[in-house]
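Worked example

This section walks through a single chain of length 86. The input is the sequence exactly as stored; nothing has been trimmed or padded.
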Amino acid sequence: MSADTAIIEFIKTPYIQEYQWHSDSLLIWVADCDWQQFKLVLSKLCNFEDGCIPARIQDDYIYIDLSETELLSDYFEELRAGFPEV
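Given that input, the structure is written out below as tokens.
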């Protein structure tokens, strides 16, 4: 799968429940019941050398700060377009 296809799949994924821009960082929340499927989508874009995705559990959601991944720097403009500030 090409990177272009993977970023489109990431932006359109139904697994992201909520997102928020904080300065130049994108924060996303994924329901814990969707975590395994979302992890497959995310892993197509990020190379996690130690095998783990930087995530924190909050209630029944998984919180990810994309500034902790290369995804934000590699696809910043695409993410800004796909996740507009509200």
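What to look for: The beta strands are 16-22, 25-31, 55-58, 61-65.
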